[in-house]
Design goal:
With 143 residues, the chain is mainly alpha-helical. It contains seven helices and no strands. The longest helix is centred in the last third of the chain and has 30 residues.
């Protein structure tokens, strides 16, 4: 396993452990109140946001197939957590196994979305890329 894979695996495991520390209601709702939480995902996946992005990008006919594939990936259902589990009755190894399983399912989903985004992004001209970058969280992530 190379350095980047180990880092990614460590980050996924750390995120899983952090989620397990949230109150049960927050875990079920996914309302951590941070970028990447369900509130932001719901907005970015909303038809209104997608129409605004489509219009702002001025998608050409040749870009439309890649746009549609990207939208299919974005709109595909996210992996659902297992039904509520009584964490207090599970052993620590069982809890971490459950977290790792969910992290793997989430990583698979994100990889498909990332592949579709990259394929679409490759069809954009430089001005469109700048617009896409701004729409895709540029303002709230680090600036």
């Amino acid at each position: 396993m190379d350095k980047h894979c180990r880092l990614a695996a460590g980050l996924i495991l750390t995120a899983g452990l952090a989620v397990s520390a949230l109150p049960a209601g927050a875990q079920q709702r996914g309302d951590c109140g941070v970028a990447g939480s369900s509130v932001f995902q719901e907005y970015e996946n909303s038809p209104d946001h997608q129409k605004k992005l489509h219009d702002a990008l001025k998608i050409t006919a040749s870009q439309e197939p890649a746009w549609k594939k990207y939208m299919e990936a974005v709109q595909s259902p996210r992996p659902e957590p297992k039904p509520a589990t009584n964490w207090s009755s599970m052993t620590a190894p069982d809890r971490v196994d459950l977290q790792v399983e969910m992290a793997k399912r989430h990583e698979e989903y994100l990889s498909k979305e990332a592949d579709a985004m990259k394929a679409f992004y490759a069809t954009l001209n430089p001005d469109q890329k700048k617009t896409f970058d701004q729409f895709h969280g540029g303002a709230r992530r680090g600036s």
